[in-house]
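Complex record, two chains
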Amino acid sequence: MTTMPRLITPERQQRSDPAAGWVGIAGGVVLAASAFLPWAYAFQALDGMSLFGYPSPLQILGMVLGLLVAGLIICSRRIKPRAKIRVGWVRGAKAAGTGALVFLILVTVAIALELGGLVNVVWGGWIALLGAVIAFVGTRLMVADPTPTLERATLPAWLEILAIAVVMAAVLFASAYVLNLDDGGAFVAFLAFLITVVAVMLRTGAMGWLSAVSRRHRQVLILSAFVVAFLFPFTQGGSDANMSIATQILIFAATAMGLNIVVGLAGLLDLGYIAFLGAGAFTAAVLSKSAFSTVNFHPPFLVTALISGLVAATLGLIIGSPTLRVSGDYLAIVTLGFGEIFRLTMGNLDGENGPNITRGPNGIPAIPNLEAGGFDFGKPHTILGFDLGRFANYYFLLLIFLAFVILVFTRLNNSRIGRGWVAIREDEKAAEAMGVNTFGLKLFAFASGAFLAGLAGSIKAHVDVSITPDQFIFLESAFLLAAIVLGGMGTVLGVLVGATLLKLLPEKLRFISEYRLLAFGLLLILMMRFRPEGLIPSQRRQLEFHEENEELAERIEEEVEDTGALKGAAL
Amino acid sequence: MTTAVEASGVSARDNGSAILVAENVTMRFGGLVAVDSVDLRVNRGEIMGLIGPNGAGKTTFFNCLTGLYVPTEGSVVFQGAVLPPKPRKVVIAGMARTFQNIRLFANMTALENVMVGRYCRTNTGPLTSIIRGPKFRRDEKATATRAQELLDFVGVGSTTDNLARHLSYGDQRRLEIARALATDPKLLLLDEPTAGMNPQETRQAEELIFKIRDLGLAVLVIEHDMRFIFNLCDRVLCLVQGRALIEGTPTEVQSDPRVIEAYIGTGPEDAADLEEFDEEHGNA
């Protein structure tokens, strides 16, 4: 970064701009054309890029990036700029050029790693890389256009809704595709492609337009998001492999969303949250019809779920009422201790060291599948000719549950109680002096978060079949918290993204599984350095993290005046 | 009610118009006596001033009244009932305050700040919030309407959607008063409401306080600005080194030689006072 400004100065850009455009177009075209050439020596590399004239999916992505660079540059030259609505064509082209280069480098490195040496990258691959380098240099030497104002553009309502639908469909296909990628290198390359597309959209202003559109059609956006999530199992052709990952993501996301009430809204650092999930899971396991259940009381699942939630909430109240008088670091330590105490207690309720409730370290296996009105969650079903396996059934249940948690989260946030929480985060003393029941609100956040985790636990017990104490280690609490910090405290979308990334990446990047924690730690450090408010932060959190950034504050203020409220929970 | 009054030893003839009676309030921090058996009486619909040089214990006394500190000795009786030593309970009882160094919720909008003030007078619970029935909408609307009224009342009605931190200094002071008024107080306590204001803003603040008094509220003001306080107040209490020096009408207090001495002081003491003043405001 430090050498860049010296190498490419505004004056140089000014001088080279006309030619640089042609260079960029040429690079893009070369890259696009090279997709038809073989890139690797052997077919096994990535997703089969060794054929002449038959581009593999990844090669097609490369072609898309090349065409994107060329297309954006041509648009910047051909389309007359309008005064009111500006599109950041060149900015987008620069992002696409950089993304294409990163993509090609990743692909090259992946081929070399998977086949053993750079010698396995054949001439087509080198031409593609050369095209990407040319496109990168060309776009770098162009003069960037002024900040885009595309978000001011309005289209007829049906077209805007159509745009949302198209984006959602793209999300559905991308997620179905990404889950089917078994090859680590291909997964990383695809991720680079996705990031590039997002970056291009950000730079051209398309993202700003989309978020303006989604603000105008909030209901449509939420509905279509759930339709997409609902349709996902139908893309899996009855296979349970990916659906199992998807259910784990949903359990994790729902739990993280509950923790987000505690951390993101009330601002309490809870490092033992997994204990509440565990409390719910153990309660449900013990009350289930498992042959290993230790009690003779097996109520229907809805009752069990409620009891699980209440047990967890009671635990939350018990641990919360003395400890919420301390704050910050002290609270973190106390909750951390509580999480460990819970795990050890569950390990000792085995009949020897205490009453036999959880069967100690063995836990409770063979928890039967749920059954609701003759619908057996354990059996595959066929709906409209689509096969849906066991995990798909649970996926739908969890989806409904997640929707419920999101509903609770957003509605609490945008209410008198939510205002109280913000006031506590801002200045607890002043809130107290203005009559806000600070202790009560904190305790409520703790208990309601625990209740939701307990509910999630009761479903988890049936999904996972077996519940043991060692599923609820501290690391899980840390990961839940990381999902929130990574995604963005206090937002719905942020936590969903964070939870998905944290569950999906380890599944797909098995080749670095030994260094998983190392990579995870590095990721967090980078986040704290460059974007402490998370990937998709709430506006208020963004303000809290950037107290001195007046530009940001003014931009958000303008939006507040448009919409009438500060979006605590941006969806 | 009467029992509480009798218990606190207030004589019957005082009973009628007094809204706040503080007796023998003493606050010790270790060996330091910050407030030394101070008596204070605020009548209904009255503007009471509290003056004194820096370090006289004004804010400490204030904090004793509003439940931030529990006084070591003495009692605070509000509307005939002994005040619980909890800020929240004090607010619910009907006493609201502002802070010497403004403590707004900086990243909330002006309207939201005032809406937080309505918290203790509304009871929208979690279930109502989640279900969002007609009661929720009614409550929210009532809260927002009342908050907007208060913003208009204090004269910052056009800043509704601005972030509190973007308001000018004078407007932030007004917003803090609006937030305090939102708790429906009977007695408003203002801790240096004109600190850092220019003469024009001070005059506007004066008008605002009169307007609040005209609503039927009693007001207790801590202030440094002598001219301001003598214009404004019906009665003034002067604290020096934690003790009540004199209490009376502005004219009485103004002409008392001890007050003049305490303020003008003699050489070295004066300098020390000034230094302290600078320190306090540099840190704020």
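Note: The two ends of chain B are 40 Å apart (CA to CA).
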